[in-house]
Write a structure and sequence with these properties.
CATH class of the largest domain: Alpha Beta
Radius of gyration: 22 Å
Helix content: 25-40%
Strand content: 15-25%
CATH superfamily of the largest domain: FAD/NAD(P)-binding domain
CATH topology of the largest domain: FAD/NAD(P)-binding domain
Number of helices: 14
Shape: globular
Structural class: alpha/beta
Oligomer: single chain
Number of domains: 2
Length: about 550
């Protein structure tokens, strides 16, 4: 099979690219996705994320594990990633967060020309169909439906009130370039009548409406195993992709470009399997070298997250038990009727971006207030009702890497986030946890609390640090392993072309040189929107 463009990975970036590139009827586009079609009710109904997140069983989820983390008492972390059309946008909490203006201005200042806030804002707007309408900061005609929550719980409003009692400013829009403050999150959720309250994943927004195009071929259950090459002008040139499907090795050819959109774990893995990476590492693995590119797999960054959890008698939260089950059945009927109620919840209904030191230029922690008890990524369940508040380090100093765990392309990559390898991250998380607990103990929230789980509530800083090492883990925002830039460790240039290799780009969260200050789905879609223009301009 021969196409103009072959895209590897049907996640947020891959769905966006496939839809945008196939708008031109003169080009043929192929999208390869290792998972399935992503149309199940568990993905359409937002509350289904709780079943998909745990990875038990692995429903549309790679359910990766990290290497033992010395900063986390030697524990192996858990890294859920979507394995389906829509990728992680099909299993996430749907939060629409762009990050700070300074994030993108920082990218541009470090040599990523064209990626400043003012230059990426048009692509955020082009992607967006905001239920509040369009203005100088928001779009109202894009594929991605962004809406206010259908029916946030009263306890989520109480969280915002508690934070304001602690002198944190309320904010109505986290996406105008300055996100400091507390409020309810907007979500990637349909707000039109026929789909109201359903998840608007990247596949539902971009790909499914484009599936009828004769120039677009989507191949699911297709696990890419290596990039194919030809030689041109003395350097390797990507010419196609080999993949495994139905117990058979197959290939697809790209006349113009191969584009990797597998994310921060799978894209560097496929590059390394294909002979692109640090020469010494590939030699040690017995992989023939195509191009020595030492930055592949390096620069892994992620938001390390710590959770405070509480039991409550408030039954208007997500709970487990006979009464909670009966309540859930009523909410299913409500969601099917008008798209509202508990089934429409993103779980993380409220939150904020706060400074642990008033002298900081920007927020350094993010809070996610969740209307359920979260314990070990929802893999440990608690009877009754409860609520939680996550706090994560927005701009970690720690760096990790992704390497080959095996030369078997079907084996998972070796993931080492290096959590808390820089002591400054632990200092920030201790301060952030104390700040979070103060909000949870403020009058507006205190009335909901039956008791706190996991901790006493009066720990010293040293005890709190030990609790963090014992319980903290990812909040699902890995980036940076194919970083964009102009230095010797950059994997792609500011046009997202792999350095030293022809007709090969990486378009996903792995190209972020520095992690954005917030959730990463909206920035990933923006990257793909901008990349589509770059590719079409060739």
């Amino acid at each position: 099979m021969e196409f103009d463009y072959v895209i590897v990975g049907g996640g947020s970036a891959g769905c966006t690219l496939a839809a945008r590139l196939s708008e031109d009827p003169t080009v043929r586009v192929c999208l390869l996705e290792a998972g399935g079609a992503g149309r199940s009710i568990l993905m359409r109904a937002p509350v289904g994320a709780v079943a998909l997140l745990s990875g038990r069983p692995k429903i549309s989820n790679w359910a990766f594990r990290t290497e033992p983390q010395s900063g986390l008492n030697g524990r192996r972390g858990y890294q859920p990633r979507g394995k389906t059309l829509g990728g992680s946008s099909a299993i996430n909490a749907m939060l629409y967060i762009r990050g700070q203006r300074s994030d993108y201005d920082g990218w541009a200042a470090d040599g990523c020309a064209g990626w400043s806030w003012s230059e990426v804002l048009p692509y955020f707007k082009r992607a967006e169909n905001n239920g509040r309408g369009g203005d100088e900061m928001h779009g109202d005609s894009g594929p991605l439906q962004v809406s206010d929550q259908q029916s946030p719980r009263p306890i989520s409003h109480a969280f915002v009130a508690a934070a304001t009692e602690m002198q944190h400013r309320p904010i109505a829009d986290f996406n105008r370039g300055d996100n400091e403050g507390v409020g309810l999150y907007q979500v990637t959720q349909f707000h039109r009548e026929q789909d109201r309250g359903a998840r608007c994943s990247a596949s539902a927004a971009y790909l499914f409406p484009a599936m009828g195009r004769p120039n677009l071929r989507v191949i699911t259950r297709a696990h890419a195993t290596r990039i194919l090459f030809s030689s041109a002008e003395g350097r390797p040139r990507a010419s196609g992709v080999a993949y495994w499907q139905g117990r058979k090795d197959k290939t697809v050819t790209a006349r113009r470009e191969v584009i990797l959109s597998g994310g921060a774990f799978n894209s560097p893995q496929l590059l390394q399997l294909s002979g692109i990476g640090a020469a010494v590492d590939l030699k040690n693995r017995g992989i023939p070298l195509r191009h020595d590119l030492p930055g592949v797999g390096q620069n892994l960054q992620d938001h390390l997250d710590f959770i405070l959890a509480y039991k409550t008698r408030d039954t208007d939260t997500f709970g487990i038990g006979l009464r909670a089950g009966a309540n859930l059945l009523r909410h299913i009927a409500r969601w099917r009727r008008d798209g509202s109620g508990l089934i429409a919840t993103p779980f993380a209904e409220a939150g904020g971006f706060l400074k642990t030191d008033p002298g900081l230029d920007n927020p350094d922690v993010q809070l996610h207030f969740v209307i359920a008890i979260v314990d070990d990524h929802a893999r440990k369940l608690h009877m009754g009702h409860g609520y939680s508040c996550h706090v994560c380090v927005l701009h970690p100093f720690s760096r990790g890497c992704v390497s080959l765990g095996s030369v078997d392309p079907l084996a998972p990559p070796k993931i080492d986030p290096g959590f808390l390898s820089d002591p400054r991250d632990l200092e920030t998380l201790v301060k952030g946890a104390k700040l979070t607990r103060a909000i949870m103990q403020a009058p507006a929230m205190a009335r909901y609390c039956q008791r706190e789980l996991f901790m006493r509530g009066d720990e010293s800083d040293a005890e709190l640090a030990e609790n963090i090492r014992a319980r903290a883990d990812t909040v699902y925002h890995p980036v940076g392993t194919c970083k964009m830039g102009v230095d010797k460790m950059a994997v792609v240039d500011p046009q997202l072309r792999v350095r030293g290799v022809g007709a090969l780009r990486v378009v996903d969260a792995s190209v972020m040189p520095i992690l954005t200050g917030g959730n990463t789905n909206a920035p990933t879609i923006m990257i793909a929107e901008k990349a589509a223009d770059m590719i079409r301009a060739v």
